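Hi R.,

As promised, here are both runs. First protein below:
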Amino acid sequence: MALGWYELKLAKDGQFMFNLKAANSQVILTSELYRSRAAAENGIASVQKNGGDEKNFEFRENKNGEPYFILKAQNHQEIGRSEYYSSKAAAQNGVNSVMNNAATTVIKDITKS
């Protein structure tokens, strides 16, 4: 099965962030903003370590009732979050996709693009 990849990029304010993308290029997890490349790379390592275990995911709903999930590290800090989904089942599919793709070691660095 083809794995996805991490896309390391710069946010508009010059901070670093990453997306985990599935093999179909869809973003399945978005990180917080990091002040340094090294911190963002540590965030990727944390997703690789924690993203394969369903107990590290927490389901939530936004104010419009749309479900989404967050991925937490073992210290309970948020590592990344999903988009908003149309149903809890769709959000669960998103978790399954993160679990299937988190271990990838492919990192596409587009900070220089």
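And here is the second one, sequence first, then its structure tokens:
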Amino acid sequence: MTLANYVAEGDVISFIRKYTDMILVTGATGQFGSKAIDHLLSKGVKESQVVALVRDTAKASHLQDKGVELRNGDYSDFDSLVEAFQGIKKLLLVSSNDRGVVENRTAHHINAIKAAKEAGVNHIVYTSFVRKPGYEHTAIAAFQNSHVQTEIFLKNSGVDFTIL
């Protein structure tokens, strides 16, 4: 059964349990990343299968206390990502929260996708952004374009993916 079948049946967690040796969650100390880790653990994914990517391990002691492995990495540091992604089969790529320059978000996402591919990650789940027709003319068009550019790069990366 493929991931699409599991998604159609509303049972992505079974897919993760069955096919995932290790899943890494980026942005693990942020709101979405930490909730995603909590959800995985609450659904029976073993602590030994979950890895949290963090920039500052001191801010992630709550994850370590749950038995989650911490790995240092930064979206802007390609080598740190390649190292952190070693042995990872599934990657939850949480969107960068760089609020300074929107272009940094796209560069961060592309850096993570390239590093994941180099490290041998089999599947990337990317947290994108819902857009309506005509979004190009809204106040947040640049923000939304960052996601569009990331999605295009991901689709052409050669890595299996899911876009949320």
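A quick note on the second one: The beta strands are 23-25, 50-54, 69-72, 90-93, 123-126, 160-163. Let me know what you think.

Best,
J.
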